[in-house]
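Morning!

This is the sequence you dropped in the shared folder:
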Amino acid sequence: MDSNSLNSFTILGFVGQDARGFTSKKTSRKFTVVDICTQEKYKNKPEPKLVWHKVQIWGTKMAPWAEGAVKKGMMVLAKGRTDEHYIIKKCAACGAEQKETVTDFKVEDFIILRGKKLEDPAQPPDPQDRASPMTVWPKDSAQAAPIVEEDPY
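The structure's back. C-alpha coordinates below.
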Protein backbone atom coordinates (compact mmCIF):
# COMPACT_ATOMS: atom_id res chain seq x y z
CA MET A 1 0.00 0.00 0.00
CA ASP A 2 1.27 3.43 -0.89
CA SER A 3 1.03 5.51 2.29
CA ASN A 4 1.32 8.71 0.23
CA SER A 5 -1.80 7.93 -1.78
CA LEU A 6 -4.72 10.32 -1.40
CA ASN A 7 -7.24 7.51 -1.03
CA SER A 8 -5.53 5.68 1.84
CA PHE A 9 -6.66 5.36 5.47
CA THR A 10 -5.28 4.25 8.83
CA ILE A 11 -7.69 3.42 11.67
CA LEU A 12 -6.64 2.53 15.22
CA GLY A 13 -9.50 1.57 17.51
CA PHE A 14 -11.56 -1.11 19.21
CA VAL A 15 -13.78 -3.70 17.52
CA GLY A 16 -17.48 -3.14 18.29
CA GLN A 17 -18.75 -6.63 17.46
CA ASP A 18 -17.37 -9.92 16.16
CA ALA A 19 -16.31 -9.84 12.50
CA ARG A 20 -18.99 -10.95 10.02
CA GLY A 21 -18.31 -12.87 6.83
CA PHE A 22 -20.16 -12.36 3.54
CA THR A 23 -19.96 -13.58 -0.05
CA SER A 24 -20.37 -11.13 -2.92
CA LYS A 25 -23.21 -12.18 -5.21
CA LYS A 26 -21.61 -10.61 -8.30
CA THR A 27 -18.10 -12.06 -7.93
CA SER A 28 -18.65 -14.92 -5.42
CA ARG A 29 -15.64 -13.58 -3.49
CA LYS A 30 -15.64 -13.78 0.29
CA PHE A 31 -15.09 -10.72 2.44
CA THR A 32 -15.33 -9.85 6.11
CA VAL A 33 -16.77 -6.69 7.66
CA VAL A 34 -15.31 -5.32 10.90
CA ASP A 35 -16.79 -2.40 12.89
CA ILE A 36 -14.05 -0.27 14.50
CA CYS A 37 -14.77 2.46 17.05
CA THR A 38 -12.48 5.49 17.42
CA GLN A 39 -12.69 8.60 19.58
CA GLU A 40 -12.37 12.24 18.61
CA LYS A 41 -11.42 14.58 21.44
CA TYR A 42 -11.69 18.36 21.37
CA LYS A 43 -10.33 20.91 23.84
CA ASN A 44 -13.62 22.78 24.16
CA LYS A 45 -15.75 19.63 24.71
CA PRO A 46 -15.30 17.47 27.82
CA GLU A 47 -16.79 14.28 26.33
CA PRO A 48 -15.06 12.49 23.44
CA LYS A 49 -17.10 11.81 20.31
CA LEU A 50 -17.33 8.15 19.25
CA VAL A 51 -16.97 7.46 15.53
CA TRP A 52 -17.74 4.08 13.94
CA HIS A 53 -15.97 2.80 10.83
CA LYS A 54 -17.01 -0.26 8.81
CA VAL A 55 -14.01 -1.78 7.05
CA GLN A 56 -13.96 -4.61 4.51
CA ILE A 57 -11.33 -7.34 4.51
CA TRP A 58 -11.03 -9.17 1.19
CA GLY A 59 -8.84 -12.08 0.11
CA THR A 60 -8.92 -15.85 0.10
CA LYS A 61 -6.73 -16.08 3.22
CA MET A 62 -7.24 -12.81 5.06
CA ALA A 63 -11.07 -12.67 4.99
CA PRO A 64 -11.67 -16.15 6.52
CA TRP A 65 -8.91 -15.55 9.07
CA ALA A 66 -10.45 -12.23 10.17
CA GLU A 67 -13.93 -13.75 10.42
CA GLY A 68 -12.68 -16.31 12.93
CA ALA A 69 -10.06 -14.25 14.77
CA VAL A 70 -11.47 -10.72 15.17
CA LYS A 71 -13.69 -10.46 18.24
CA LYS A 72 -15.51 -7.67 20.06
CA GLY A 73 -13.27 -5.55 22.30
CA MET A 74 -9.98 -6.19 20.50
CA MET A 75 -7.71 -3.23 19.78
CA VAL A 76 -6.84 -3.26 16.08
CA LEU A 77 -4.96 -1.29 13.44
CA ALA A 78 -6.35 -1.26 9.89
CA LYS A 79 -4.66 0.30 6.86
CA GLY A 80 -5.92 0.30 3.32
CA ARG A 81 -7.53 2.30 0.54
CA THR A 82 -10.87 3.95 0.05
CA ASP A 83 -13.12 3.15 -2.88
CA GLU A 84 -16.25 5.07 -3.86
CA HIS A 85 -19.28 3.77 -5.72
CA TYR A 86 -22.85 4.85 -6.21
CA ILE A 87 -26.08 3.12 -5.27
CA ILE A 88 -29.62 4.00 -6.32
CA LYS A 89 -32.17 4.18 -3.51
CA LYS A 90 -35.92 4.66 -3.89
CA CYS A 91 -37.69 7.11 -1.63
CA ALA A 92 -40.34 5.23 0.36
CA ALA A 93 -42.67 8.23 0.47
CA CYS A 94 -42.54 9.51 -3.11
CA GLY A 95 -40.97 6.65 -5.09
CA ALA A 96 -38.28 8.89 -6.60
CA GLU A 97 -34.81 7.42 -7.17
CA GLN A 98 -31.87 9.01 -5.39
CA LYS A 99 -28.21 8.49 -6.22
CA GLU A 100 -26.10 8.02 -3.08
CA THR A 101 -22.30 7.90 -2.80
CA VAL A 102 -20.91 5.09 -0.67
CA THR A 103 -17.28 5.01 0.46
CA ASP A 104 -15.80 1.57 1.14
CA PHE A 105 -12.76 1.11 3.37
CA LYS A 106 -10.87 -1.85 1.87
CA VAL A 107 -8.22 -3.20 4.23
CA GLU A 108 -4.78 -4.17 2.95
CA ASP A 109 -2.97 -4.45 6.34
CA PHE A 110 -4.72 -5.56 9.55
CA ILE A 111 -3.06 -6.09 12.93
CA ILE A 112 -4.57 -7.21 16.23
CA LEU A 113 -2.76 -5.16 18.86
CA ARG A 114 -4.51 -6.34 22.00
CA GLY A 115 -6.98 -9.11 22.71
CA LYS A 116 -9.52 -6.99 24.57
CA LYS A 117 -10.02 -3.46 25.82
CA LEU A 118 -8.47 -2.74 29.20
CA GLU A 119 -10.61 -1.26 31.95
CA ASP A 120 -7.62 0.58 33.46
CA PRO A 121 -5.16 1.93 30.84
CA ALA A 122 -2.44 2.21 33.51
CA GLN A 123 -2.61 -1.55 34.08
CA PRO A 124 -0.42 -3.60 31.68
CA PRO A 125 -2.18 -6.14 29.44
CA ASP A 126 -2.37 -9.77 30.48
CA PRO A 127 0.09 -11.81 28.33
CA GLN A 128 -2.48 -14.63 28.12
CA ASP A 129 -4.99 -12.21 26.57
CA ARG A 130 -3.00 -11.31 23.47
CA ALA A 131 -4.03 -12.54 20.04
CA SER A 132 -1.53 -12.77 17.22
CA PRO A 133 -2.66 -12.46 13.60
CA MET A 134 0.09 -14.89 12.66
CA THR A 135 -1.04 -17.68 14.98
CA VAL A 136 -4.83 -17.35 15.26
CA TRP A 137 -6.81 -18.96 12.46
CA PRO A 138 -10.49 -19.92 12.19
CA LYS A 139 -11.18 -23.36 13.60
CA ASP A 140 -13.51 -24.31 10.76
CA SER A 141 -12.57 -22.42 7.59
CA ALA A 142 -15.01 -24.53 5.55
CA GLN A 143 -18.11 -22.87 7.01
CA ALA A 144 -20.04 -20.93 4.40
CA ALA A 145 -20.49 -17.20 4.60
CA PRO A 146 -23.91 -15.73 3.83
CA ILE A 147 -24.49 -14.50 0.29
CA VAL A 148 -25.48 -10.86 0.13
CA GLU A 149 -27.43 -9.36 -2.74
CA GLU A 150 -27.05 -5.74 -1.68
CA ASP A 151 -24.64 -3.60 0.26
CA PRO A 152 -24.28 -5.24 3.74
CA TYR A 153 -24.43 -1.86 5.45
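Headline: Residues 6 and 118 are 33 Å apart (CA to CA).

More detail when I'm at my desk.
O.
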